[in-house]
Amino acid sequence: MKQHFLPLLTAVAIFTAGCQSKSQTNTDSSIQKDSTEQVTSSEAPAEKVDVSKIKVADAKTILARKQVPILCYHQVRNWKPTDGKVGKDYIVEVQNFKDQVKLLADSGYHSILPDQLYAYLNTGAPLPSKPIMFTFDDTDMDQFTIAAPTLKKYGFKAVYFIMTVTIGKKGKFVDYMTKEQIKQLSDDGNVIGSHTYDHKNFKKYEGKDWEEQLDKPTKKLEEITGKKMTEFAYPFGLWNAQGIPQLKKRGFRMAFSLADKRDQNDPLFTIRRIIASGYWSPKTLHNSIKNSF
Predict the structure, then answer these.
(1) Which of 135, 168, 236, 239 could crosslink 159 through cysteines, CB 3.0-4.6 Å?
(2) 3-state secondary structure the chain
């Protein structure tokens, strides 16, 4: 994508970045609300999980497990006069973000990473008490300068889904992470995942799109991090079942959507997240976590 298209791309990523506000509530009919179900243990396992020998469980087994809360963030910065009403939904102001993270830490949450989630969903492996996953989409610079240090302060780690067209670029509205910063996040124990080349709707892929949106970005991110890409986040949270085999063929283990229902045949490739809205106070975020998962 030409650099002069970046402002448009940024606007798309911010204003429609994968969700509709109405989808913030839990719509998955397969979610288990049985309060007796146990998904945590008193002893938190090590974050390093050997998943190489894990056999993928059947869909019914995966769907029956209680879902882990997964948050999706985009920009972490203070609102500007030019930010529209919809855009603010995807922009969490700096102090609000810090307060949100502190509340979650004070409430006893423990961050988990994809290996732990994969092991839990497939084998029922124990998770730390009150597990939660932090994810960030679109490569925004403030995720490195503000979000990562804040999470690190409380011992949290996160997943960063990278859109490769913007790496190292300076946009009209936002700057983006460099290759060196992405590598540092990975080296610090966070996980880097794929978020396509330029945020094209996954449901519309055909022909060379699979190479442009999956193969080339995957290769670039693996060159940057020195690690295999095994997680994917759908642009706009939009997916179709016909495209899932393309992800599997390329070695992806899990793919993350937003608050829609999970696919009943491939729940590992339709893992739910909720947008952490810029309008939410820490208390509202906490309530949304409890109500949505």
Answers:
(1) 135
(2) CCHHHHHHHHHHHHHCCCCCHHHHCCCCCCCCCCCCCCCECCCCCCCCCCCCCCCCCCHHHHHHCCCCCEEEECEECCCCCCCCCCHHHHEECHHHHHHHHHHHHHCCCEECCHHHHHHHHHHCCCECCCEEEEEEECCEHHHHHHHHHHHHHCCCCEEEEECHHHCCCECCCCEECCHHHHHHHHHCCCEEEECCCCCCCHHHCCCCHHHHHHHHHHHHHHHHHCCCCCEEECHHHCCCHHHHHHHHHCCCCEEECCCCCCCCCCHHHCECCEECCCCCCHHHHHHHHHHHC
